[in-house]
Amino acid sequence: MATSVSALTRIRSARLAGMTFTDYGFYVLCGTAIVLLATQAVLDPRTFFQVLDFGIADGAIYALVALGYTMVYGIIELINFAHGDIFTLSAVIGSAILGFFTVSENTFSLTEFVTLLLVFPVVMLMIGGINVTIERVAYRPLRNAPRLAPLITAIGMSFIVEGVMYLWHGSAIIHFPDLLPHGPGFQTYIGGVFFTFKDIFVIVAAVILVSLLAVFINASKLGKAMRATAQDRDAAQLMGIDINRTISATFFIGAVLAAAGGIIYGLYFNNLDYHLGFSVGLIAFTAAVFGGIGNIPGAALGGLLIGLVKAFSDNYVGSRWTHIIVFSILIAVLVFRPTGLLGMRVPEK
Amino acid sequence: MSNRVAAPPRSLFARLRLRERIRDRDTAIYGLLLLVALVFPAISLYTSDGSTYLIAVAGHAGTYVLLAIGLNVVVGFAGLLDLGYAAFFAIGAYTYALFASQQLLASPIHHAYHFPFWLMMFVGLIIAASAGAILGFPTLRLRGDYLAIVTLGFGEIVPQVFQNFDQWTGGINAIGGIDQPTLPAWVTGPWAGADSISIVAPFSFSFDPIAYYVLIFILVSVAIVLVNNLQRSRLGRAWMAIREDEVAAAAMGINTVTTKLLAFGIGASFSGFAGAYYGASFGLVSPDDFLFIVSITVLVMIVLGGMGSIPGVIVGAITVYFILNWFLPLLPPAVQSLASSIGLGSLNARSGDWPGLGNETQNVTLLLFGLILVSMMLVRPQGLFPSRVREQELKHATGQEDEAAIEQAHA
Question: Is A330 in Cβ contact with B153 (below 8 Å)?
């Protein structure tokens, strides 16, 4: 056993033209994927670009959820299992608020536009507040507890949020008003590929939100405090940063992005149930790890890639294999790139 | 707080007393558990008029105890977070189900195998352990939570694979008609409905809850002895060294990869064991029995019980199983009868939007379970019965932090 392990280490660190064996493995993996997809693109460009379109829209939503996972993990090293359910809760609250207005799903007039403009900030603020409360109640008291204790309260919180939605709507499918302009006037064929207004909306909204986040993290004082806290909590505290406030802000922003993602999901797919957050959260968390957990551009990239992988595998392999393919790719990427696609190699403490 | 800073270093005598306390509490819990395990079947038979339902439930709880003991080796001893433990459970269960039923007759090899349970239990163990080693070999050099994600991914893949290769495993239709274990001889008596105590030979378990209860009791006892010895062995100490500080452990000459691999393999082997038992006792194995929620439940059991402490995780497993499968399902009828006995019986009826008290209680069970988890964790973050060694370490660590805070305040 011992000899085989050391042999493995030797193989891993062996270098050829400046790259390690694992780097080659990673590039071979990427190369194979590109060749396979390129073949499909040449054989049937129409299907290929259609799937690409759907995959990007789907991936944009995963990216928004993944950002919350990665930010929370980056700052307190907690896998926030409740995050996926926060995402679902925002869609449920959004649909409830829209229920107060007499919106029409068939025409897009000023009323619909105003309600849309209204529902986004209201739900984002509410969900942000809820997530900050969750952090205050369930995670902060356990900050110095054994590492797995907050993980269990996160699982408990996930059950609580799901339980609230179950109490509210039961296991029935919840309809989210189809508010975005749709129908013959808002869809078009470009080169045989079917585009709808909704696809464009999802992608543009996600790009705007992610850019705002990037500006906030890199340019604002609070963003700087977040980066400092993520790097070294004690040192940040010594520099006069209010750790509790910074962590609360992280939870708030993560929830705001998830809330936007939830409403966009509702507007795009129109149907959800109380249990949706479980699977979306699992995939989004995978996306965060894929990009390198704790790394914000990584989460956005990871979400996009997972969306694409899902769409391509649904279409070319069959949807019942999608789960297997997504997680196999995840394991393979981590074997060859142990810190994710964009993750840094941190020295061991 | 200043007292603690000024406290003299612990004398040898104090350490000795500490060791005595460790032994005392754990022995007490083991003794209590043994007593309950032995008396429980008699009491439940007597009080429920010969119904073996509760014994069957207890037998199933035993499966989870076995799983918790195994996961404790990986998470509690070696400190590797495993979020896909149910995968190894599934591998054990399917190994037994495939080779002890008619299932493979319909598969491309057209031949049904019927290996005995006692053999397949160990085959399941070996296959689950090898699966753990195969998964661990390329991935165990990953740091901390990346490993957790790999195991999570593995836990998602395995049930899906069993579901998708339906030619072999029957897919979503599950594998039924799994062979029952047989013994050359067994004792029967009034508890099994016979007139007098006598010996039956040969004996088939044929879903007899009492026989399964005895079997799981023996399996759990063997597992407890095994892990206790493992914990005290050279390997167990190496696991704890890796858990506390991997770099320091490697510097002391511990081969971290092999040690972690062994933790993974040994942890998985317990669930392979449990899987074979599960397949036999239910006679049905379906991919839905091994979803992510099973891994999470077992993790909750060991963290709640007190990671790293064997009696702790056993109590944790029994507590969580009891809450999930006895307390929460029985709550709605209990609430209903309570309401009628205190004169609020009108609440039980359904009216308008109100679904009736019973149904409403049913609807809040998920919420309630979450609340129980969160509040238990907030009250006892270290678990119900934490390992004394770890408790001391944690106390020591926070003590140091307090000192640092004091220094900070002075500066």
Answer: yes
For tokens 């092999």, what's the residue? Answer: B258
Instruction: Report chain A residues whose CB lies below 8 A from the CB of B394.
Output: 146
A338–B143: do the CB atoms touch at under 8 Å? yes
d(CA B380, CA A318): 46
Respond yes or no on whether the N-terminal peptide bond of residue B116 is cis (omega within 30° of 0): no
Domain map (residue ranges) of chain A: 20-336
Contact B258 A331 (CB under 8 A): no
Q: Which run of H or of E encompasses B45?
A: helix B12-47
Q: Is B299 on the interface with A (CB under 8 A)?
A: yes
Q: Are the C-beta atoms of A176 and A266 separated by less than 8 Å? A: yes
Q: What is the spatial distance between Cα A224 and Cα A263, in angstroms, rounded to a whole number?
A: 29
Name the architecture of domain A20-336: Orthogonal Bundle (1.10)
Q: Measure A320 CA to nearest chain B CA, in Å.
A: 7
Q: What is the number of domains present in chain B?
A: 1
> CB burial class (10 A; 0-12, 13-18, 19+) of residue A204?
exposed
Min Cα distance B42 → chain A (Å) is: 36
Task: Decide: residue B362, CB within 10 A, 0-12 exposed, 13-18 middle, 19+ buried.
Answer: middle
Query: In this structure, is residue B70 part of a structural domain?
Result: yes
Mind listing the pLDDT tens digit for each residue in B208-262? 888 899 999 999 999 999 999 999 999 999 999 998 888 899 999 999 889 999 9
Domain assignment of residue B188, yes or no: yes
In one letter, which amino acid is A16?
L
**pTM (2 d.p.):** 0.87
